[in-house]
Amino acid sequence: MADGKKNSSLVTRKGMTENRQHPASFRDPAGFVFEQQGKYYRQINQSYADNYVLFKQSGLYELLVKERKIIPHTEINENLTGRPQWHITLLPQQLPFISYPYEWCFSQWKDAALLTLGLVQKGIEHGMILKDATPFNIQFVNGLPVLIDSLSFKKYDATKPWVAYRQFVECFIAPLLLAKYNGAAMLKIFQIYPDGIPLAVVLKLLPFKSILNANVFLHVRLPNLLTAKKNDAQKKRVPFTRQKLINIISNLGSFVQSLALPPSVTQWNNYYEETILSRGYADAKMTIIENWLKEMPGHTVLDIGTNTGLFAKAASAAGKFTIAIDGDTACIDKLYTDCRQQNTGNIVPLCVDITNPSPAIGWDNAERAAFAERAKADTTMALALIHHLVIGKNISFEQVAGTFSRFSTWLIIEFVPKNDPKVQLLLQDREDIFTGYNEAAFLEAFEKKFSIVKRVVIAGTERVLFLMRGTVI
């Protein structure tokens, strides 16, 4: 339910178990998330009691759980925090990992946006309305986007417009539009504007041709113009209706559906399809990885530099919950799309560059934890990656070993020698200053953090796979 960050303020009550309020859960007076004895709970306050009762009695909660659009919870009639505003305690489904929107690919953003609009529609049908539209309330569970905030609905007043409309545009439409016109890398801008990208900023970043898009005018340009005339607009408020809102939600849904990235082929998203090395290399490597994964203890894998997820899928097939990351957005989009089509639910694909992972951000740098704090696993895989880090990014073997040792106890890593065609590609346009790049130096650095369990040369190549176990965690 939460990202496991442990440095939140400690709340204690005499005679009660200690609990910690989650550092990102403080803005909504309706309730908050807290941790107690390794589990995450949500307290509902008395101020939200009537809305929560309606949420349950209307059948909306039951429907959304059935359709897998919200995580289920168990009610606990006990005040675990001891706070006087308590109404009821919820124990939500516990999530193994929390991702943030600025780590999602374009298709994940689209699916999250469509889920949000679907929640609005379902809410209206049950006399409720989604009161906020932040992507931080959405996680990918079993391959699908789901709402994780049980306090997101309130009683619907058909005479009023959707209170979260502007937030939806700035938090979903804005990043998707910027990605459509300027490339998927623009999705990272949400890390700078986690409360939503201001429409004035969006308009400055959109190309002139976007002015021809009627939906851009309706949902971005026009609201931005009306902001300057807000006082006049309030004096001339036009009565709202249920049908007007339904029409707006339908239009937004069509708008989101229409957004797409142009087809692209990067130097990495066809790595295993058109690699310099033979197809036999991938097959031989897969045989080794599959055998090791079957033997590995634990249930979670972090696949760093996953590419299009060939080996992340192998980890998934071995029953491992897998966090698959890559800095190439096209690779992650393809992996996510494949997982949706193949109903592969235990892989979470994310756009994370391990050389520049998501930092801790928000109030007191504690609201959203750094990727390195969240991405704890039993096993880390780093395949065909070491040369990109050491030669491509000038990161030392010692630095790589130190970072990897903090992710997991077990490590499956591939050493790519200097005479490998891929390494030579990295060196062809730069001076070779990497005199110490060799297997001996690699082992010297990694053996400070790991013990070598297995070493296997991949057939037909000089590449070497190592299975290591951490000695310092």
Question: In words, what does this structure look like?
Answer:
This protein is an alpha+beta fold and 473 residues long. The chain has three domains: 10-92; 101-258; 279-470, 3-Layer(aba) Sandwich (Rossmann fold). The protein has helices at 49-57, 60-66, 106-125, 165-182, 199-205, 214-228, 230-235, 242-258, 279-295, 310-317, 329-341, 371-374, 386-392, 397-407, 421-427, 439-446; strands at residues 10-11, 19-21, 31-36, 39-45, 73-76, 86-92, 128-130, 138-141, 144-147, 153-155, 300-304, 321-326, 347-351, 379-382, 410-415, 450-457, 464-470. Strands 13-12-11-14-15-17-16 form a seven-stranded mixed β-sheet, sandwiched between helices. A hairpin with a 2-residue loop joins strand 3 (31-36) and strand 4. Helix 3 (106-125) runs antiparallel to helix 8 (242-258), helix 5 crosses helix 6 and helix 13 runs parallel beside helix 15. The longest helix is centred in the N-terminal third of the chain and has 20 residues, at 106-125. The chain is globular. It starts with 9 loop residues before the first strand and ends with a strand. Residues 1-15 have low confidence and may be disordered.
Characteristic terms for this protein:
7-stranded mixed beta sheet; disordered N terminus; alpha+beta; 37% helix; 6-stranded antiparallel beta sheet; 473 residues; Rossmann fold
Low-confidence stretches: 1-15
What characteristic shape results from the CA principal axes? globular
Number of structural units classed as domains: 3
Cα-atom radius of gyration: 24 Å
CATH architecture of the largest domain, please? 3-Layer(aba) Sandwich
Distance between the termini: 25 Å
Q: Which sequence of strands runs across the widest sheet?
A: 13-12-11-14-15-17-16
